[in-house]
Amino acid sequence: MGTQAVWDLLRRVSDPEIPVLSIVDLGIVRGVQFDGDACVITITPTYSGCPAMDVISREVKTALHDEGIDNVRVDMQLSPAWTTDWMTEDGKRALASYGIAPPSQKVVDISSLKRRGVDEPVVACPLCHSARTQLVSQFGSTSCKALYKCLDCREPFDYFKSH
């Protein structure tokens, strides 16, 4: 099995906290390579200390074992730090369909290769698409999300923070 086939398998591994996202769409899979007979998957957590990483590592190994790849190593890479810029457009659409507002701005400004400032983004409601929303809490259901409410439809929703 080649590396492209492994990438295709990893697209079927869901994030345990947001099951509509694959770990590839989330952007945490940094590399797939073979080292002799070992398949090495490199992943970067969304946050250092992310509690889902053990589950994700186990799910990656299970998915590859189920396809006959017995020698699997999952390496954790902390640098460069994960950023929402690594999420795929399909992943962002899946978040919105699931009721979580996707990141609304790029973290890295490629025109000058520096991190953006911490301006509060305009976050559209994933339910009614109104831009009239308000931050309720910097922390939502998980540490990578913030809690917002829509001032039009009055519904609360999570926003996947840009970082």
From TrEMBL:
Which InterPro entries does the entry link to? Fe-S_Maturation_MIP18 (IPR052339), FSCA_dom_sf (IPR034904), MIP18-like (IPR002744), PaaD-like (IPR011883), Zn_ribbon_PaaD (IPR056572)
Report domain PaaD zinc beta ribbon positions.
Answer: 117-161
Residues of the MIP18 family-like domain: 4-65
Pfam family of the protein (one): Zn_ribbon_PaaD
Coiled-coil stretches are none
Designated name of the protein: Phenylacetate-CoA oxygenase subunit PaaJ
Species per Swiss-Prot/TrEMBL record: Zemynaea arenosa
